[in-house]
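User: Sorry, what's this?
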Amino acid sequence: MHGPASPAWLLVALCAAAGAYCLLRMRSGVEEQRRAAGGEALMGFGMAAMAVPAAVFAPPRWVWPVYAAVFGAAALRALWAARRDAHHLHHLMGTAAMVYMSVVMALAPAGHHHMPGGSGVAPVTGALLLYFTGYVLLTGARLVPATATAGPGTARWGDRPELARACRLSMGIGTVAMLLTM
């Protein structure tokens, strides 16, 4: 997750901005928006923290198991929420990807930021890349008509569906970028 500095900082900014917008969405008048926004804010800020270039801040080894535990708890919450809304299955995939990346980082030898023991793409990394690439393409295609039809001033910032989709698209792109560095 710690590749070249310039793209890493762009990823940090993208994920932090998505997390900040999700915090705004938590003030929405729509209960479902508030419920989903909290998990998405956690994902955005967690991704931003994981993407900070190693040259700036190399976290201690104990941080990775903590990330895995936090995102594992978020995955359990998403699994529970998926009982009533299938959208939470995507949250489950996102949190599972974060747990996976945290475990890989915890197992990597000091100074190495990729899958230990071999070359090539690990099957789990490949499966996650396929899922998130498909998600990014599908969400991007859905976003185009939404921005063309949404009228100005029709909803508050936290209730704008096209902004929520753009936020999810940004985090999906960020996840693909992070997985590519594994």
